[in-house]
Amino acid sequence: GAVVSQHPSRVICKSGTSVKIECRSLDFQATTMFWYRQFPKKSLMLMATSNEGSKATYEQGVEKDKFLINHASLTLSTLTVTSAHPEDSSFYICSARSGLQETQYFGPGTRLLVL
Amino acid sequence: AQSVSQHNHHVILSEAASLELGCNYSYGGTVNLFWYVQYPGQHLQLLLKYFSGDPLVKGIKGFEAEFIKSKFSFNLRKPSVQWSDTAEYFCAVNAGTDKLIFGTGTRLQVFP
Description:
heterodimer, A: mainly beta, seven-stranded mixed sheet, B: mainly beta, six-stranded mixed sheet, four-stranded antiparallel sheet, 12 strands, about 0% helix
């Protein structure tokens, strides 16, 4: 199957700082990338959908100014958590898809801990 | 609103037992259906998917799922589980929108 990578795999930061997470599709061009948040023992919650070259579409309740998403190329999307707070600590997962009827392939996730 | 229900939150089985995990969705139109697996410490992997055609879908590692449109269900089955099947299993639906709706997941523990 297709490979999606995320970097970093885990990050610890101080409250008030910003953290950038990268999501890359390694062997295919991803027209659409998705960002999810996974809480312990909970399902994945979609945060936003990003299409290459256009603004991300955020789900209800997700602050677009706090979670900045950039999808500058067909193989790279970034999620920046701005002014992080302890409640932003979570597991962030991206997925990528090459077309509308194609399968989403998931990255390994990034564990964020805000102190 | 579209939703996906997985009624079994935690399933414990012995090796060689048969497995069936339930998945029901709420949407009246055309759906694409998926089962993903998340092994401990690993990322989500696609087990199988249904887009159209034969409603009995075979996936990797001996898993299969059956789409029953009249019951809005897409249950996952495996005739004989192994210890290595211990994982979290997620059903997901893509229903007329651009995004996947996930169920809450089922934690499967298989004991030798």
